[in-house]
Each structure stands twice: as C-alpha cells, then as structure tokens.
Amino acid sequence: AACILLFPCSEKMYAARREEYKQCMQELKVGIPQTNSVRKFATPAARSLFHIEQVSSFGNACGTIAAVHTLANLDLEKIMTTGFVVGGSPQGGPTSASSSAAIVDLEMKDMTNGNSRGNEETKHGNEGRCPIADFCSSFRSHSPHQRGEALVRDPNFQTMSDRAATHNAAQTSCPSRDGPALDHHYCTFVPSSPDQQHGEENENDIRVVELDGTKPTPIDHGPMRGAGLALDFLRGVCEVVQTKFVGAD
After folding, report:
1. Helical H runs in 32-179?
2. Residue 44, strand partner residues
3. Which of 14, 33, 52, 167 is surrounded by the fewest CB atoms within 10 Å?
4. What's the CA gap between 160 and 41, in Å, rounded?
5. Is the pLDDT of residue 134 over 70?
C-alpha cells in the first residue's frame, strides 16, 4: 500500500518543515548508523528508499514527484497481482500537478507491460519498457539531486506528466509549470523496512516513511503497528498526518 497526500502550506507548516530540514541535514552529516534508534528521521529504513529531489527547473511538479516516488518504491509486480496504490487528497482542494490520481492511473497502465523495479537487465529508454522501472534501474546508484536532474531531462516523464495533468480525470485546471508557487503540496507515504536495503523485508519492523522531493531525505515517522496489513499502514499514515501535518498548523 501507499498513500499520496495533498496538504495546504501555511506559515506554521513552513516553520515546522524548516526545523525538520535542519534536523535531517544534521543527521545526514554523521553517516549511516546500524540501528534506527540513533536517528529520528534519516534512518536506514528511510535511506534505503529511492529518493528524488524536486529540482527547481522542474517547476510546479510535486504531484508528479509524489507519483514517481510512490511507484518507484513499491513492489510493482505484487501490486499488479494483489492490489493498487491508494491515493488521497483533501476534498475539493487544488492540485499542483492537477491530479496525481490521473498520473498514477496512467503510469500503472504503462507498467502492465514493464518489469518491476530493480531489474538490472532493464536498459533505460528501451521501447515498450516500463519508464519507472527503467529509470530506477539506470539511476539507482545516483544521488537524489542527480535523479531529479535526470527526471527533468527524460522526455518519457515529461510527456506522461503533461498528459496526466490535462487528462479529463483531472479535478482542476492545469497550472503553469513555470508559474508562481502554489499554496498546496504533495508528498507520499510508503512502508519500508531496515532490511529492505538487503533485499529482505522484516514484517516485525515495517516503518511509515514519507517521501517529499523538497526534503533532503525520506522521513521515517516510526514503526507501523499491527499485523503488517495495508489497513495497518494507512492507520499509521493517518496518525502521522494528524500529528505532524494537522498538528503543526
């Protein structure tokens, strides 16, 4: 499961995000510890995920970044056989990429003809291949900034993003990519385990992790309580949203 969140950006929210940014930068300077207890945000579970920086030249594209973050950090093969990505936004709210649900839906349709992420044999740009899987395979060893720069230059994502933003499923008119900053922002939440970086998943230590292209690292919001089901994960996301987003405002 995954959850895409659209939220308003108030002055209090910006202040909380600035403090979180400082904490993340301090944690990133001390190297990667062996346990989650050493860090508050940039834990091994968070750092194991595929993170993309929303570079300034991308413009108003946080909806696209959230969709790519979601699809790049889930087991796509498992999703196609057992479930789907769960997306959410405040009812009636404006969007920064017009409709993240539209681009997620279009991307998932494209992925039915591609492989799941992490296929090292996948070559970037091959015709008929899954764009997300190709991108992850080609840029897995790169930095978040390098991935963001590459995403801007990739015509596949530019086309899909523009198509989704102007799709009839979009809830609002499409804002200009180079227009003024918008007062709402997208991020996504995915489950992650410290053992994920070794190709394993410990069901007893699945954590709720936020991915936001404007933050220096994925944010670990703590362990998920329950049996590891999708509903348990969504409950964990709701707790984070109530505490860290609604509570900050």
Report:
1. 44-47, 62-72, 76-82, 100-111, 131-139, 144-153, 155-165
2. none
3. 14
4. 32
5. yes
Give this prediction's pTM.
0.74
Query: Rounded to whole angstroms, how far apart are CA atoms 68 and 137?
Result: 14
pLDDT computed for residue 50 by the predictor: 94
DSSP letter at 141?
T
What span, in angstroms and rounded, lies between the C-alpha atoms of 219 and 238? 15
Give yes or no for residue 57 having a pLDDT over 90: no
Residue 97: CA count within 13 A, CB half-sphere: 31
> Which of 91-100, 123-132, 156-165 is least confident?
91-100
127 three-state secondary structure: coil
Strand ordering across the sheet containing 3-8? 86-87, 3-8, 184-192, 207-211, 219-223
Buried b (16+ CB within 10 A) or exposed e, 124-135: beeeebbbbbbb
Other beta carbons within 10 angstroms of residue 86's beta carbon come to: 16
Question: What CA–CA distance (Å, rounded) separates 14 from 11?
Answer: 5
What's the CA dihedral at 4, 73, 200, 21 to 10 degrees?
A: -70
C-alpha distances in angstroms, 71 versus 79, 93, 227?
A: 10, 23, 23
Q: Please report where in the chains the tokens 């994960």 appear, as a residue.
A: 233
Residue 198 CB-density burial (10 A; 0-12 exposed, 13-18 middle, 19+ buried): exposed
